[in-house]
Amino acid sequence: MPDWFKKALTRKRHRQGARGKPEVIVIEPDERLVYLVKFAVLMTLCLTALEIAHMAFMRVWNAEVFAAVTGLIGTVTGILIGKKA
Fold this sequence. Notes:
By secondary structure, this protein is of the alpha+beta class. The chain contains three helices and two strands; from the N terminus they run αββαα.
């Protein structure tokens, strides 16, 4: 199974090599960063399912769970955008 998270966090740098040939330098992400992003995405999915179940059974919006989901989405987005720059 391909590792989409590792691929999304991998950087590629293009530069002129020796003799004028273009080179591509691949910079792999740290394994801890990949595990952190996987955990954050998994927790976002779990908390979203919890919010949906809460609304389905209790018919009330839970602001605390929504705040946690929003924070995790912001964290994952920030990591992905910051790592690509």
